[in-house]
């Protein structure tokens, strides 16, 4: 019997982001309120009779086996497991998923039922949680490649709230205690004596689940990578990353029956001199322990980059969050106009 406060909180969180499209079955879930939502969880999703629903969140998710398919999910956290309620169309999005998703309800294709598949990650199978830069996303890792999921919240508040709720639920688990640690000094605890390089900051929960947060070196590595993409950079130490945010690039298609637009996930990075869009691999890094070879693509791949001084104007939409921004750059073939003025244009 959940408290009134918890039911009110879950009802408030049960809202699909307005810019993302979901199926009819997930729209039905988003329409449930209060006690109806809790009863839906117990009668359709929960695997154990005495588990409690503690938190609900809508988020885009990525699976390790299908890193190119981002799908909308209703994420439900209970005292026993994390449930990812997925759009049924996800199964048909990629033919390589047949071994990952065992589809048994093919005879329901043309019926009036709207199916959703539910991916379950038991809390007892949870090994680590990697939090992304600036809390824009987090990756949940289990014991195999099938049990790695990244939640692209694109929102530090949602990430923080989910991590806090997860830690609280993990505290209820009865696990055998790990052996008493040997007293270590700061440097042996957080650094490697061979290289002197600081490792990512790790918090080991009482349930023995690791919570891994990025350290300052990740920003430094990212700044170096960005600097490589900038031609003629003279002052590398002064390069600062001012903003890192997971966003969508809007591709507008005209000429169709109705003008449509698709949203392409991008990582936007703003420095003091340039604006970059990267295609980022959110799920393969850092490499899980069982990985036999590095991922097929780099963590960051440059999609577009423009100089701030070429920025002509920024158009802002009037709708509420998420805000749409249009950056208009001067369309100049040769970026350095000044260098042409040194040529003798008026001679023979």
Automatic annotation (TrEMBL):
Q: Pfam families from the entry?
A: PH_NISCH_C, PH_PLEKHM2
Superkingdom of source: Eukaryota
Q: Can you give the residue ranges of the Nischarin C-terminal PH domain? A: 241-347
Key word Cytoplasm present: yes
* Stored InterPro entries: PH_domain-containing_M2, PH_NISCH_C, PH_PLEKHM2
Q: Does this UniProt record's set of keywords contain Zinc?
A: no
Q: Name one GO cellular component term.
A: endosome membrane
Q: Where in the cell is it found?
A: Cytoplasm
Query: Which keywords does this Swiss-Prot/TrEMBL entry list?
Result: Cytoplasm
Please provide the Gene Ontology terms (biological process) for this protein: Golgi organization; lysosome localization; regulation of protein localization
Its Gene Ontology molecular function terms? kinesin binding
Q: Where is the PLEKHM2 PH domain?
A: 114-178
What is the protein name for this chain? NISCH protein
Q: Which organism is it from?
A: Erithacus rubecula
- What does UniProt list as this organism's lineage? Eukaryota, Metazoa, Chordata, Craniata, Vertebrata
Q: Which gene encodes it?
A: Nisch_1
